[in-house]
Amino acid sequence: MLVNVIGMGYIGLPTALMMASHGVNVIGTDCNPERINELSTGGKTFEEKGLAELFSTARAAGIRFTEKYQKADVYIVSVPTPYIKKTRKIDPQYVIAACKSVLETCDDGSILVVESTISPGTIDKFVRPLLNGRNIRLAHAPERIIPGNMLHELVHNARTIGVDDRETGETIKDLYASFCEGEIVLTDIRTAEMSKVVENTFRDINIAFANELAKICHEAGMDVYEVIRIANRHPRVNILAPGPGVGGHCISVDPWFLVGDYPKLASLIHTARDVNDGMPAFVLKRIAEIMNENGIIDLSRVGLYGLTYKENVDDTRESPTLQLLDVIREAGKPMPQVYDPFISRDMVPNQHHDLDAFLEACDLVVIMVGHSELRDNLSVLDGKIVFDTRNIMPQRNRRYTL
Ligand code: SAJ
């Protein structure tokens, strides 16, 4: 069986490498010639624990990379699915383009798996009509892996596969079972689409609850972390951690698919999105309060530690720090200092590439991301006023929280 994985990004690449390392005949395709060149010559991919080793194993096992779609038995489409900011609906153009190219290449009887996250109904609305009655079998096999622990989760998490018929389901299940040790659940395509989006929406709502509690406790002059720690002693309560906002390309995006398609019904989901999107502005309000309390008048003497959307990854998509910088820019205020050990390219004004120089340049340090670099060396913050939005510092003087 030959598998052609389309889209060598955050999901497609690890999936292709994993299959190849487990004896599947795989060709990776990407429309970006630079990426194909990098991969073919063994260049660096992206920062992820164990990825470089997996890459070597897959190369030794014979994985190939090309810009061209290949004649294959199974196609796995894992291209991005952005959402349209104005309508809050999914923008399926990359999925549609990839599926069209697959259909131009493949023979009847092949299987087309969409792995990209899509809003419920996308396959019926946009992909199925492209078949024009041809005998191409469709499947939706959404991923569930968390950046920072992708490879472990790829192997151990349960998976969902949505199909129209059992036989296709069994074929695709066997393919994923080449490397996946978790349970593989077969269902229909619409249920697979919906359950994926629901998983991320569940988390978004729960993070929003924690964030709202942080605001309430601040107003009440209480320690939200103590409140959550105690409440979580209840056997059926598990409150998540408040933070400076929700970033990444999944949790902050997928709930909008439901809001976009069901605006009258998805009111709780919509409110949770607004609460999480409002966190950077709340952080700015807290920064102003702390500056005031400590006689700091210049926002450019404030330093934001962390640009990525969460700790120990190099991904800045939708990151709370970038959202916060947008709020500051829009308010016409001076730009703060910024530093992130994972980001070597210049992305924002006043960006430092050296922790000491960054600390030197600020009177107030705002911990936006709890990278291990800082978590394991908290003494570098001695003598600084710190606003710890991630609660990584033990209780101490001159430390403020959300
Ligand atoms: N966050 C908080 N408080 C928390 C947990 C997270 O503020 O208690 C913030 C993080 O700092 C980050 C954002 O939320 O900015 C999202 O981070 P995350 O680590 O919770 O999730 P992602 O976006 O990296 O990955 C999610 C995962 N989905 C779920 O946990 C339901 C992952 O399993 C999915 O595969 C991925 O989305 C995806 O591709 O859909």
Structural class category: alpha/beta
Cα shape: globular
Strand neighbour order, sheet with most strands: 3-2-1-4-7-8-9-10
Helicity, in percent? 25-40%
Mean pLDDT: 95
Which cofactor or ligand species appear? ligand SAJ
Low-confidence stretches: none
Main β-sheet: number of strands, strand sense, barrel status?
8 strands, mixed
Question: Helical region count?
Answer: 15
Got a strand count? Answer: 16
- Report the radius of gyration as a whole number of Å: 23 Å
Describe this structure in words.
With 402 residues, the chain is α/β, with parallel strands linked by helices. The chain has 15 helices and 16 strands. It has an 8-stranded mixed beta sheet, with helices on both faces. It has a 6-stranded parallel beta sheet with strand order 13-12-11-14-15-16. Strands 5-6 form a two-stranded antiparallel sheet. Strand 7, helix 5 and strand 8 form a beta-alpha-beta unit. Helix 8 crosses helix 11. The longest helix is centred in the middle third of the chain and has 32 residues. The chain is globular, with a radius of gyration of 23 Å. The model has no long low-confidence stretch (mean pLDDT 95). The site of ligand SAJ has 20 residues, from helix 8.
